[in-house]
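Fold this sequence, please.
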Amino acid sequence: MKVAMVAHHYPHAAHREEFIARVQQVAEVFRGTPGCLSAECWESADAVVSIVRWESEEASKTSFATVMSAGLDLEFDEREARPREIVRLTAC
């Protein structure tokens, strides 16, 4: 069953471009993992939104393990104005 994640990130204006670059790097790693159907970076007036889709929950877990071990800057810190909002989805 397909699964997805939609994450809204709220970087401070001074860090927005840097944050978009960070999300794009993470998306690139996700896209290179087996079972990842897509990984994209979108933006709205107040948020940077990442959307990732996988062919299964198992593929999602494997992708996350790969991303976590890739040495990327994933930490929430003072560069973000408020906590991230992350929604996990399952296809119906």
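Residues 3-90 form a domain with the Alpha-Beta Plaits fold (CATH 3.30.70.100). DSSP finds two helices and four strands in the chain.
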